[in-house]
Write a structure and sequence with these properties.
The protein has 260 residues and is of the alpha/beta class. The chain has helices at residues 15-26, 39-53, 67-81, 104-132, 153-172, 191-204, 208-216, 228-239; strands at residues 6-9, 30-34, 57-60, 86-89, 135-140, 178-185, 250-253. Strand 5, helix 5 (153-172) and strand 6 form a beta-alpha-beta unit. Helix 1 crosses helix 8 (228-239). 45% of the residues are buried.
Amino acid sequence: MFDGKAAIVTGSTSGIGLSIATAFARQGADVILNGFGDPDAIERTRADLAAETGVTVLHSAADMSKPAEIAALIGLAESAFGRLDILVNNAGIQHVAPVEEFPAEKWDLVIAINLTAAFHTIRAAIPLMKRQGWGRIINTASAHALVASPYKSAYVAAKHGIAGLTKTVALEVARDGITVNAIAPGYVWTPLVEKQIPDTMKARGMTETEVKEQVLLAAQPTKAFVTVDEIAGLAVYLASDAARSITGTILPVDGGWTAQ
């Protein structure tokens, strides 16, 4: 489906991002992975994906809180592939605390990685996509782009910002063959969700089981975590020619959470 195309997926050394990158590679796209982690493990992941799919798979450790490194990441696609067709802004972090106890530096970092990074990647990618007359930008938002939860002021603010950024850029490039959409997952079992459990336990005075049942899955009528493969499947569709008239949308994949 994507033979000859090149994709960047930020935050793709694990979780949702890795699943999306894998799905694009399996459809023939050359892929740049991005993210931190154990270098040996990342290299194994990169090499295994390249061997399985036969496409070129690169890795960039660009820090998504640093604009210069973000610019270099987009530049890598141009230098390695001569193009950039698909950009998935997926990098994200979380911090959970009451707003009056929320560390200012944590606010700044959550906003930088979850929102501002997407501005910088999009700003750099659009000229390449306009030159090609084709592009797909997919932002990983969250159900928290549409609704709020306590103790997540920075994350909710950033994801609401992603929704607005998605709509705005979609309007600006609507006649350039470029679509811009956001996927808004509910709770997906990923390292990001797993890591926020201890903070939520502390903030709410709950056990781990209580957090999972009464907080994480309380809002999802299906009472089941969304899978990373479900998110990846939607990303592949949004990047396809069949989805060329879908732009400026925020698409929930949340087990019915935001239908309530």
